[in-house]
Every structure is written in structure tokens, then in C-alpha cells.
Design goal:
Elements (H helix, E strand, L loop, with lengths): L5 E3 L2 E3 L3 H25 L7 H4 L2 H31 L1 H10 L3 H16 L12 H25 L1 H7 L3 H31 L9 H4 L1 E2 L1 H7 L1 H17 L1
Amino acid sequence: MAQLTIVNDGKYIRWTRNERTQHWLMAISFTVLVITGFGLKYPDAWWVRPFAGVDWLFNLRGWMHRLAGGTFLLLCVYHVFYMGLTHRGRVLWAALMPKKKDISDLVRNILYNLTGRGEAPKFSHFSYMEKMEYFALIWGTVIMGITGVMLWYQDMTLRFFPFWVIDLVTVIHLYEAWLATLAIVIWHLYYVIFNPDIYPLNRTMVGGEIEKEELMKEYTLEWEEMNAPEKEEEEKT
């Protein structure tokens, strides 16, 4: 696991430039999808009304939604190749795989937060929370991607399915959108911004670097693994 970080002037590279670019493209396209998608679904909402009477703006929202959706899906395809065909990606994928320890960490963390007894679990490169969020993103992307394409190309969809499928797909697309939006607003934004240990921002997503103190605190097991060879050498001498 130690190979996942690179020493750089006393700091450690947690996200490469490629990974940061992927993250920001995803964040921007997701935000555009949320705004334009809910704007199309709820045209009478107070924040949509100023544009409701302008036809070209309404049409523009539709095209922006499709453009952002296409960008999001293309980015996901790129990410699949990145994770499967690059050494860095394969190492990260191996680190993201669920393990039995993740279940015990979840239980232990709940008990620790509720009772204050014992010790909080120690994490390696990814905590169980980060793994859950990552795989939830995969699930949401698959659902939103399939339903979005079916709604985008309704004529083609109706060649293979009855009309009521469009209504069903619309409901699934809407509620998955709500689920994804709430997960980002309530869970992810707290985790990277409003968490008292992180506030006002987890700067790793900007520069890719993580401070030594944060690495030792948040990813203790990774830090210990990184320094295991040095400890072994000290013990030998």
C-alpha cells in the first residue's frame, strides 16, 4: 500500500493530476446535471421562473443537460480504462476492494461514536466510507446512464418497449437523481468541507498533496506500512 503515495518536499501525493482532473470534470458535469435536470423537472420552482418565459433558455437547459450527461458518461468510460489499464489504476482498484475489516471498522466506528469507548478504527489508503461512496457512485452512474440514454432516445426505446416503460424510466431517473444529489450534499460535502477536522476544505482535491500529520491521523495503517521498512532496519541495527 505504501506505493500509493510519493514523497514530495515533506508532503505526500495522494491524487495525481490526472485523478484531480477526472474529479473536477465529474464535479462540474454533475453540478450542471443537477441544476438543469431539476430545472426541467420543476419549471415552476422559484429559481427557474426568471428563465421560464424565454424559449431559447429552456431549450438551452435541455441541451446543457444532455451535454453534461454525455461528458459524465465519457468520463466514466475513461475512468474504467484508467483503472483497468494503468498500473496506478490497478493498484487503486485493489485498494478499493471491500474487505472483512471494512465491516468490523463500520461496527467499531459506530460503537465508538455512540459510546466514546475503545478506539476509533485505523484505516489504510481508503476507509470503508470512501469505498462505500465510490461503489455507490458506480451504481448511481449505471442507473442514471441507462435511464438517461433511454429518455434521450425515446423513439428507439419505444421500438423495443411499451410506452409505460418511459414513465417507469422517468420515475427511476428522477428518484435516483434525488438520491445522488442528497448523497453529495449531505454526505460528500460534509466529508470534504464541513467536517471540523477538514474545514474549510480538503485541499487534497486541489493540489493532490496530503500533509504528513493528516496522513498519520486519517490513514494510520498506510503510514505505518510506509514506515515499516525503516522500523525493520532500525531494529536490525
